[in-house]
Amino acid sequence: MNTVVGTNQVKKALKEGTVKEVFIAKNTDAGLKEKLVALCEEQGVKINYMNTKKELGENFGIGINAAIAAILI
Fold it and tell me: For the segment 14-56, what is each residue's pLDDT rounded down to a tens digit?
């Protein structure tokens, strides 16, 4: 399963149209979260929420907190 983690990488993949679904941490800054959700909705990408950035980072196998991650097509 191909994934990308982090705001810049996910934004790039969304613009390229290669994202199957995204995971956004609920404790992400509200302004950033709004922008990410809007971008996902524009692309018709399914959005899933995780409780914290720490949980999201752990679930995607990185040792740091992450606001967003995506599973690629």
Answer: 999 999 999 999 999 999 999 999 999 999 999 999 999 999 9
Q: What is the pTM of this model?
A: 0.94
What is the distance in angstroms between the CA of the first residue and the CA of the last residue of the chain?
Answer: 9
The alpha carbon of 63 is separated from its chain's Cα centroid by a whole number of angstroms, namely: 16
Within 13 Å of residue 44, how many CA atoms lie on the same side as its CB? 1
Maximum distance among all Cα pairs of the chain, rounded to whole angstroms: 30
Query: Beta strands 46-50 and 3-5: pairing type?
Result: unpaired
DSSP, res 65: -
Q: Is 70 helix (H, G, I), strand (E, B) or coil?
A: strand
